[in-house]
Request: fold
Amino acid sequence: MAATASDTATLTLGDLSVNLPVVTGSEGEQAVDITSLREKTKLVTLDPGLGNTASCFSKITYIDGERGILRYRGIPIETLVEKVMFVDVAYLLVHGTLPTAEERHNFSQLLNFNSLMHEDMRHFFDLFPHEAHPMHILATMINAMAAFYPNVDSQSLVENIDRATARVISIVRTMAAFVYKKSIGEPVVYPRHDLSYCANFLNMMFDSPVKPYQIRPETVRLLNILLILHADHEQNCSTTAVRVIGSAQVNLYATISAGISALSGPLHGGANQAVIEMLRMIQQDGDVGKFIRKAKDKDDPFRLMGFGHRVYKIYDPRAAIIRRECEAYLKTIHYCDPLLDVARRLEDAALADSYFIDRHLYPNVDFYSGILYRAMGIPENMFTAMFALARLPGWVAHWQEMIGSRTKIVRPRQVYIGKGLQTADVFPSKNPLLI
Ligand code: ACO
Reply:
């Protein structure tokens, strides 16, 4: 399924003319291969934000942003959320196929065996300030894993990839729940071997010695759906961070820590928390139109959080599923969230406004997910950690693919626009205080 070399593009600049190969992907996407451009012409390309650059070949996830299509290893997300669990999707992303019954059993065993974090790491949690954001704690803790679980370097994949994947997915889940328990001053709850991945997480989050947690199957189902929908999204900002850092052949944990840090930003995964903060602000103010006007005002830094996407120019297919599930789940658990009404009104107003229509701005994955997390009892500062938990298999799959394709170290060029050569008279006369 390698991309095929089909056409040739010709670049002409003055008297210079050069032919560049055009490659075609398995879904018909075409790209001009510029790897020989600089050698042939001394020219580089300029693409800030890389919005027009394919940084690699990949077989993991396919997105068609014009038609609202998202597939993992060829399978539409709509089918995956109906038919399988998050653990199957994790396996699918890393291996390329869904697990057989035996492979699933073995993978589940690995998830179970690797769910405990090294006991010495528990002390780290005591040292963070109480109000520290979970994403900052997670990024630090995952980086520290390299010290406790060595041998996952990118040069020699000395560990079995299943074990590495299971360890990352399982321990980070334990860590995320520990972060929450510590933040509310409750004793931590250990993972249980008899619970599925999502049920285990919910139990670690909400079980308490004085109030046992009742695991609801509909909540477990919903968490599976949310994690599946966030599991991968090809070369997004955090996955690109993982690939860039990984290209220097650092260990897997360092790359994932970089992914977590990138994800924490409000323009990326941090948007899910920012959406709820925005909806609350609009609810208190009561005037949806005022916030639409603010979002359109170029002198106002305010943007509609959870709206817009670099790739989707149509309704984000993940947001469509989450909105549907959100309405259904709130009904099932008889929970009325006034922020859902604000979100609906805001969406309707934006989708009827020419500013948003002309720019193809629609709700993205983060617009409704926070409302669901709230209904599940997950606190706002944990929303982005939930996203991180879900994205782990995607990051591992991309890291693995990058190592396998022997990617060169990522090291872009630039167009220098600074000063020319400076002469000696730019140095200040000697500062007497420094003598
Ligand atoms: N509210 C108001 N205007 C917007 C918004 C928004 N949410 N998003 C984009 N625009 C406008 C821009 O101002 C710009 O207008 P202009 O052409 O008049 O200058 C135009 O739409 C294009 O926007 P860009 O910022 O160039 O688009 P880009 O692809 O670089 O950014 C992004 C995509 C970061 C997601 C952007 O839409 C945004 O900031 N959205 C809000 C934050 C958010 O929800 N992030 C989560 C994304 S999903 C994810 O990462 C998991």
Observations:
- The two ends are 67 Å apart (CA to CA).
- The chain has a mean pLDDT of 93.
- The pocket of acetyl coenzyme *A is lined by residues 49, 267-269, 271, 295, 303-310, 359, 361, 364-366 (CB under 6 Å).
- Strands lie at 4-13, 16-24, 30-32, 61-64, 69-72, 75-76.
